[in-house]
Design a protein that fits this description.
Number of domains: 1
CATH architecture: Alpha-Beta Barrel
CATH class: Alpha Beta
CATH topology: TIM Barrel
Shape: globular
CATH superfamily: Aldolase class I
Number of strands: 8
Order of helices and strands: EHEHEHEHEEHEHEHH
Radius of gyration: 16 Å
Structural class: alpha/beta
Helix content: 25-40%
Strand content: 15-25%
Length: 224
């Protein structure tokens, strides 16, 4: 699979979301990543479906809604109606994970599950048939700018091997302090797409130049 870059809009300038979304599309972003936080599952509160709804007419890029919420089933339909093309839910937040994934798939969007850094891959054992992508957290969810957890690289490699052994073409994503300095080794470990946040939005370069730097760094890896 080709490497995909998904700017994480939690790190964008909230007063310029539309402008920056358009700039990212023009610069060649593959999709936009929205961290939806409820202040309960994670100790932070971000935005809801109305942000996606208002941004949807501005760009044609796919939207991923990463639901860091305690009751994801309650808002999945609203996220899809607002324009989300991909929905990821946390295994740790779903009482009935397979049912929640089936709900997402029934709405005709790509279906994903997210795993916190300490959550073992065993949590995926009986839901692989329900997945289009798996999102591995390389920081504990809740805040941007945290330190990368080194074990995430081995976890990605283990997941890549697991999927290969079962002949599953499921995309592996990673989210959490992805920078040009580590993206190539993570891609080499088997990650196909990356949510990129503070390393892109807080860099000295323009968004277009920052995205180009990520592309160039990622191109050094041979994706498994």
């Amino acid at each position: 699979m080709p490497i995909k870059l998904a700017p994480s809009m939690i790190c964008a300038d909230f007063s310029r979301l539309g402008e920056q979304a358009k700039a990212l599309e023009a610069a060649g972003a593959d999709f936009l990543h929205f961290d939806i936080m409820d202040g309960h599952f994670v100790p932070n509160l971000t935005f809801g479906h109305l942000i996606l709804q208002h941004l949807r007419p501005a760009v044609s890029l796919p939207f991923e809604a990463h639901l860091m919420v305690e009751e994801p089933g309650d808002i999945i339909a609203r996220m899809v109606q607002a324009g989300a093309n991909m929905i990821s839910v946390h295994a740790e937040a779903c009482r009935h994970l397979q049912r929640t994934l089936a709900q997402i798939r029934s709405l005709g969007v790509k279906t994903g599950v997210a795993l916190n850094p300490s959550t073992p891959l065993d949590a995926l054992q009986y839901v692989l048939e329900d997945l289009d992508f798996i999102l591995l957290m390389s920081v504990n969810p809740g805040f941007a700018g945290q330190k990368f957890i080194p074990s995430a690289k081995q976890k990605a490699a283990d997941l890549s091997e697991l999927l290969r052994s079962q002949n599953k073409a499921i995309e592996i994503q990673m989210d959490g302090n992805i920078v040009p300095e580590n993206i190539a080794e993570l891609a080499q470990a088997g990650v196909h797409s990356f949510a990129i946040g503070s390393g892109l939005f807080e860099g000295p370069a323009s968004l277009a130049e920052g995205l180009k730097a990520y592309r160039q760094a990622a191109a050094r890896a041979e994706v498994k």
